[in-house]
From TrEMBL:
Signal peptide: none annotated. Residues 16-113 form the DC-UbP/UBTD2 N-terminal domain. InterPro entries: DC-UbP/UBTD2_N, DC-UbP/UBTD2_N_sf, UBTD1/2. Residues 1-31 are annotated as: Disordered. Pfam families: UBD. The lineage of its organism: Eukaryota, Viridiplantae, Streptophyta, Embryophyta, Tracheophyta. This is DC-UbP/UBTD2, N-terminal domain.
């Protein structure tokens, strides 16, 4: 019986509804070009932090999609969402994936490119 309770709790955890991150502010104003460069650098290096490349790819697709599509992506990839804003997730093997807010949403102090 303990196993059934454990697996049910795990499936409920992986089915956590995701939401947009709360508004945030970068330490200094960023242009859209600078934000894109930061995001590109993160996604290029993310697989080196550990975990599976397929999960990183799914997280990137989810981060760049609208919220309902993002939910479908993480559900189908078997991503276990700890924080509803996707900042902390796990795969089915228990590897941890941490996403910075700048890959999930825009800062409140985003400025126009010159």
């Amino acid at each position: 019986m303990g196993c059934a309770g454990s697996s049910r709790a795990k499936s409920e955890e992986s089915a956590k509804k995701i939401r947009k991150p709360k508004p945030w502010k970068h330490s200094e104003p960023l242009t859209r070009t600078q934000l894109k460069q930061m995001r590109d650098e993160f996604w290029d290096t993310a697989p080196h932090y550990g975990g599976q490349k397929e999960i990183w790819d799914a997280l990137q697709a989810a981060a760049e999609a609208d919220i309902s599509l993002a939910q479908a992506i993480v559900d189908s990839a078997g991503v276990i969402v700890q924080n509803a804003d996707l900042t902390i997730c796990y795969d089915e093997r228990g590897a941890k994936y941490e996403l910075p807010k700048y890959v999930l949403s825009e800062p409140t102090n985003l400025i126009r490119d010159s």
